[in-house]
Amino acid sequence: VTLLQPGAFLQGEDPELAAPLHDALCLEDMEILENVDISGIELPRSGLQASGLKVLLGNGSAVEASHLIHADRRPASVEGLGLKTARVSCDKDGVKRDADRRCSNPKIYAIGDGLDSFQSIASGRREAEWVIQLLFGQGRPAPFRIARVIGADPEIASIGLSEEAARTKYH
């Protein structure tokens, strides 16, 4: 198994947390190629047969594979919601909103999936609580503190800023 990573492995997580998972995957014979650009996919010459599949990389090399799984950020699904009619700004990344979850139409708040940021069930629920507090005059809520969990072996969980982000923000 080869993992082709467009950036660093678990980019955005603390390297001290990502390293044990990286090492465990490598011990299980997974090859992890970081900072890779995929320029194309060359299908097998024999039609439906999987062997001979090549993933072409931006540096001119290729990775041969029998199977290919593409896992990327889930695209925002906002088509057919009437957002243009409601004067809600959105693009290919989803609905645009401010720090209080308010859209370009000030009567509409956006929470959960289909937005311009990473989403999870926990963050969607926390955003709903945030909007309810704002709507019912309970003042501006405390900043989000939602755990990020990577279900792997070893499992990784973190909350708040990474060490690098904290040093950048507070130094």
Instruction: Catalogue the unreliable spans.
Output: none
Strand order in the largest sheet: 3-4-5
What best-fitting shape do the alpha-carbon axes yield? extended
Q: What is the helix tally?
A: 3
* Average pLDDT score: 83
Tell me the structural class.
Answer: alpha+beta
Would you kindly provide a brief summary of this structure?
This protein has 171 residues and is α+β, with helices and mostly antiparallel strands. The protein has 3 helices and 9 strands, in the order βαββββββαββα.
Walk me through this protein's architecture.
The strands form 4 sheets. A 3-stranded antiparallel β-sheet has the order 3-4-5, with no helix packed on it. A two-stranded parallel sheet has the order 1-2. Helices cover 21% and strands 18% of the residues. With 171 residues, it is α+β, with helices and mostly antiparallel strands. Strand 1, helix 1 and strand 2 form a beta-alpha-beta unit. The chain is extended. The longest helix is centred in the C-terminal third of the chain and has 15 residues, at 121-135.
